[in-house]
Task: inverse folding
């Protein structure tokens, strides 16, 4: 199974433990792109709605495309009653959007799973002139709050973290948007904090693509090792989060 599909195997866990984004980020984005009633928006790979509510609640014409069948079904259960909500279960890479055009296309840690040479030209074509491409991601730092715990966790990784599928993700460059015709490219940062118990931390780690595919006998030892390490450190892991928002415009 390719990595961009593994999240569909854990919809409930994904919904509960994947990080949400800061309210300040969404307020800034909504103001920047002037999103509200009368505006048409497309979210790429919404998962189970980690970045959906603030945009949907503006009253815009919200559309989404989700590759995973289980994630798609959960999105329909959560948001299907909204009159301004629409979602399709398909692959953005091959999906035919027909004559649809959007005022904003946005992604929360999803566009990076699409080859750059497809993602940027296709989003560019789907945007209306002057439309916004917004790409967000979270960088979680748990070394700064507790370096001793961080180092002990790295030892668990060194001993037991052995995925059975090579992880090649990471070649997507957000900063390359201007190479495909986008203008006014910029990066904005927002900040937050998360705290996990040992069990919560293990469950959160289990939502990472390369962690999901760790096989036995390493899998149990790996997650048990993480749990015991955090329990010994007081049953708490603190993350200092940086929420990154990349913005770009299609020229008028």
Result:
């Amino acid at each position: 199974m390719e990595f961009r599909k593994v999240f569909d195997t854990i919809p409930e866990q994904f919904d509960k433990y994947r990080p949400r984004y800061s309210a300040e980020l969404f307020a800034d984005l909504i103001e920047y792109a002037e999103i509200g009633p009368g505006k048409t928006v497309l979210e790429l790979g919404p998962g189970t709605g980690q970045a959906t509510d603030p945009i949907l609640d503006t009253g815009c014409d919200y559309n989404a495309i989700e590759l995973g069948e289980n994630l798609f079904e959960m999105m329909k259960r959560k948001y299907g009653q909204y009159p301004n909500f629409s979602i399709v279960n398909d692959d953005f890479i091959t999906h035919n959007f027909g004559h649809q055009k959007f005022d904003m296309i946005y992604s929360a840690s999803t566009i990076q799973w699409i080859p750059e040479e497809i993602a940027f030209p296709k989003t560019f074509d789907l945007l209306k002139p002057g439309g916004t491409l917004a790409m967000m991601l979270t960088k979680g730092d748990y070394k700064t709050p507790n370096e001793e715990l961080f180092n002990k966790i790295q030892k668990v990784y060194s001993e037991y973290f052995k995925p059975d599928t090579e992880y090649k993700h990471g070649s997507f460059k957000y900063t390359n948007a201007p190479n495909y015709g986008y203008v006014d490219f910029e990066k904005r940062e927002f900040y937050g904090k998360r705290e996990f118990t040992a069990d919560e931390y293990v469950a959160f780690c289990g939502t990472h693509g390369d962690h999901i595919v760790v096989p036995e006998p390493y899998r149990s030892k790996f997650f048990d090792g993480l749990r015991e390490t955090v329990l010994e450190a007081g049953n708490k892991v603190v993350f200092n989060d940086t929420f990154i928002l990349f913005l770009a415009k299609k020229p008028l």
